[in-house]
Amino acid sequence: MDELNSLASYLGVSSGKLVLDAKEQIPVLKAGNGLTVRGLVSVAKQLVRQSETQELKGTTAEERAAIDQWLEYRVVQVDRSLQEKDVSTVLRDTNAYLSHHVYFVGYQPTLADIILYLGLYRIFEDLTFMEKQKYVHVCRWFSNMQSLFADKMSKKHIAFQRNKIFSGTGH
Amino acid sequence: MKLYTDRGNFKSLKVIAALEFTGLSYSLTECGLEERVVPYLSGTSLPVLEVSPQRFLFSPNTATRYILNKKCDEDDPNIDKWLEWESVQLQPYLVRYLVSVLVHKKPDTESLNRLQQLLKFLNAELKSKSLTKTKDCAADFVLWASLFPVFKGAAEIKGWEGQYSNIKSWFNTINNLPCCQTALDKVIHGGDTTCLKASLNTQPVPLLETETRQEEPVQKSKPQKVKMEKPSETPTPEESLLTKEASPEEIQAAKESWLTGKSKFPKPRERKHPILPKSGERNLLITSALPYVNNVPHLGNIIGCVLSADVFSRYCRLRNFNCLYICGTDEYGTATETKAIEEGVTPREICDKYNKIHAEIYDWFNISFDKFSRTSIPEQTKIAQDIFWKLEKNGFISRDSVEQLQCQQCLRFLADRFVEGTCPLCGFDDARGDQCDGCGKLLNAIELKDPKCKVCKGIPQVKSSNHLFLDLPKIEDKLKAHLNAQFDKGIWTNNARVITNSWIRDGLKPRCISRDLKWGIPVPLEGYQDKVFYVWFDAPIGYISATASYTDRWEQWWKNPKQVELYNFLGKDNVPFHSVIFPCSLLGADDNFTVVNHMSATEYLNYEDTKFSKSRGTGVFGHQAKDTGIPADIFRFYLLFVRPESQDSSFSWDDFQLKNNSELLNNLGNFINRALMFVSNSFGGQIQEMTLTPADFHLLALVNRELASYIDNMEQIKLRDSIRNILSISRLGNQYMQANKPWVLVKGSESDKRRAGTVVSLSANLATLLSVLVQPYMPAVSDTIQGQLRTPPQCNVIYKEFVCQLPPGHKIGKPSPLFEKIETPKIQELKKKFEGKPAPQKNASKASAGNPEETQKLTDEVAAQGNLVRELKAKKAEKAVVTEEVAKLLALKKKLADLMGEPAPAGGKQNSKLAKKESKKPEVSSSGTTANGAVDNQEVERLTEAVSKQGLLVRDLKSQKAEKSRIDSEVAVLLDLKRKLAVAQGQDPEALTGGKGKKGKKK
Fold it and tell me: Could A171 and B212 be called an inter-chain contact, meaning their C-beta atoms sit closer than 8 Å?
């Protein structure tokens, strides 16, 4: 809920009709014209639709699909990774992906970056510097994202090291 | 677009339906269950749509929507909503429910309840008969595909049609679309949803929602239950093996092979020499790189080729393949010749000596060559010259003159490694002829500045000499054609491919194959008859000559590429010679030679964290392994367990101990011994009637799975992985015993006893299987197990399924433990023994560390000279004589000090003694030499003499071990004299006595 409110204020749209379904703990947005949107991803996408920043949705069909799948990744994978083993899978996979990409999709930040930044925040808060060095690519991305969004979404900055401070871990 | 999916994955339904619906062209690639397609995802996640090369959609929902948008673009928030609902809410419970029904055959009511709630919600939302305003949209296909398995077939939720009428009409509309029927045909053939099982069992189960739910008061009891169940979902590795699922087909197959498999079980092949290829059979010619003769092989060399090839060929024999394993020592070349000069014997004698050492080592390691030959045999000369003539005739030999360094004193051309000098590139003054250790660049010997002969230090001169070249560029096309075919169908380790490809990519150059040496195969060509072949030209021909010395029908192996598969085992440093040069020789000779088909190249094995080093004595060398008292099989096992298959690995004693104690002793040894002891003690050594329960067949199915994987790994020459299969089987066995507790059953009722009989007899049969599987790795252990079990010799075949070899009534022998625990003190001792000397450092410390005798000798000389000086002085010898002797003494002392490295470390007895002398002598000598310039010459002279006299007296007393009181009084006199002397010389007596006092304490 907080995330969606921050997102709405970042996008400069009203989140007035946003409520939380008490039983299911699912955010619900009444978007007018009898349209009711349920779920974090659907609401986030709807907020973007209502905003001026359409480029966050992606410009081509391929980009939009790619954004969709990373949004889904956030809700089914990131949010549900609570055990250490799942968390490290998330970090390993995103790290591997971002070793070849600056942003999750395309060549500029999209909704996928924002939603994953918000979703991964809780995980990054708990990382040690040694882990941050291990997942250097996703950390680089995260640090980049927080310089873009943290202040506007009133998120605290997380510290990252600039240099390798631990010597090689292997043999 | 390309769709990757495993067989029977219900999540592919929607994607295929969408593809069919739009009529877009696509290709369908079926992958293995656990195959990874998306490079950045660490787990398996199928299906995956490859939109354009290397751009993947790993979310099937997104893929479905993307495909449909290709035809009719939408941005409908309602579709967002339904797709999110499906992935977030429906999937986790749907998959759990399907797994529980189709895999475990035990419907999970918790998931079913959740599903019912979700369906109720969907039914209510479907009042308007469609999900969204858009007809046939992504939401329709996605939900249809997910619900199909719970609406139709084996996992159908009974009565859903009555309960959810809205869903029913919507579902049937979608289900009747032709595209959906096509998709169903491809995924769920004949509507039988049990075919989804394997995929469901492998693909990750979606994670469940988080704790936020647990705070809900209404739900409280349920999530707690979920939480309680969690441990069973992620069991500890120890528990996981027996509880692994096996499909009914697997269990059925295991049952059949157990009950009736023995009739199909092949008879072991007799190993009758000479082994020759047979048509219609798999004929494998296995070679291990020929070890060079002038060295004792270390464990890294042994695992690198000889032992790896041995395991593989033993495996092949057990599989009843027709295989021949050959090896030998590589004997020709400069290194042997030089070694012979060093030792003052003939090269032949050197080779005889080392060939024997090698043969003994391999014998101890139980390497079962069909032939262990050597390259210095007449067959080698004949075949090498024959190949040469064919190459010459076919125009692949060219001639050129080469500038070489010749040593005028040794009267021979110097091989690269026998030249030293200054690096022309970086100026490093200790560069070798082939490479500079300073900058690491490869060099040509004639480029070196100030070259020197390494043997005699003479200055060599550049002379030109005519040589023969193998014209590789001309053969390149033939080679490429051969390799491309073999890379496709053969087993090549990654490093072998990469090294070979990089050689070819860099362009092949003519390669010199003659050398100005004596010890080698004479070049038969006129004008070159004073030369011999380059050792790398003839060494691989050693494989052929070894076969020729084994059988005169060797051509059946070597000129028979249609029927024979050639496997080369080697270390990665030898790859180019086996994959480029030797094949070029054979292909160029154009005589229908058998050319390499498979190549298994190992990486390097390190010792602890450093390299094996002969000169420093670091690491275990072949002949020393025997002296450790540890059986060869344990070494074999450990070396294969850490075989440097895809990256360098290292031999570590701690790990060696751990693997022996945990895997061999506690796992494999424990299981076999326990099973046999039970049969022996509780059932009089007799195998009992076995009435297998479904749980037992389940075990058999799991064993068969490991067995299949063992065979598969062996075929791929993944020798490390097969060991793990063996250990998994014995781990299964241990858990089986643990779960059935025969020690309890045997004390129970008659039927309990019968059950105990089944359990231990089945375990004994499992031990029989293990004894066969373990045979390539630990042949002696295998023999021991089979001796204890008295297995029939017919069991020694590796068959694809586990069959009952020991029938009821079979009497086993006497069981005894198979492995011994290795204790830590033993490991510490071995570690110390083989750690070797620290890497030599330059300069003085080298001598002191390396040469204690020298130090002792000089110390003695100093002492003797000191005495001489003292005596001379005491006798009032001529001053000139005394001065001369003193000078000698000082020179000796300086030498000693140099040798010790300046501040002689205190602590050792000898050192402290020395230090004492050091500080004492100068006083004596200085008192003598400075006497001339002193205030009162005569007085000084007199006192000096008195001091030295008294000093001698004290020393004598000490050396005679006189009474302490006596010595002390004489010392007091001496000190007094010295003080007087100091005063006479105008020195501060206190400084002296201070020094004395310290010394006294030290003593």
Answer: no
Size of interface A-B (CB pairs under 8 A): 107
The interface pTM score, or ipTM, of the predicted complex is: 0.92
What string of DSSP letters covers B335-365?
HHHHHHHHHTS-HHHHHHHHHHHHHHHHHHT
CA distance B158 to chain A (A): 26
Residues in chain B closer than 8 A to A86 (CB atoms): 207
- Flag if A77 and B208 touch (Cβ within 8 Å): no
> What's the helix, strand, coil split of chain A in %, to 5?
55, 10, 35
Q: Is A25 in the B-facing interface, judged by CB distances under 8 Å?
A: yes
Average pLDDT over chain A, rounded to an integer: 85
Contacts B605 to A, Cβ<8 Å: none
Give the predicted TM-score (pTM) of the model. Answer: 0.56
* Nearest of B472, B471, B582, B466 to residue B525 by alpha carbon: B466
Q: What pLDDT is stored for residue B199 in this prediction?
A: 83
pLDDT at residue A52 above 60? Answer: yes
| Residue spans of chain B under pLDDT 70 | 210-240, 440-442, 838-856, 876-877, 897-937, 961-962, 984, 986-1003
Give pLDDT, residue B856: 67
Tokens at residue B971, please?
A: 């010392």
C-beta separation of B966 from B993 below 8 A: no
* Residues B131, B167 contacting (CB under 8 angstroms): no
Cβ separation A65–B65 shorter than 8 A: yes
Contact A105, A133 (CB under 8 A): no
| Structure confidence by residue, pLDDT tens digits, B372-389 | 999 999 999 999 999 999
| Cβ neighbours of B948 (radius 10 Å) | 22
* Cα(B261)–Cα(B111) distance, integer angstroms: 41
Residue from the list A49, A62, A81 with its beta carbon closest to the beta carbon of B207: A81
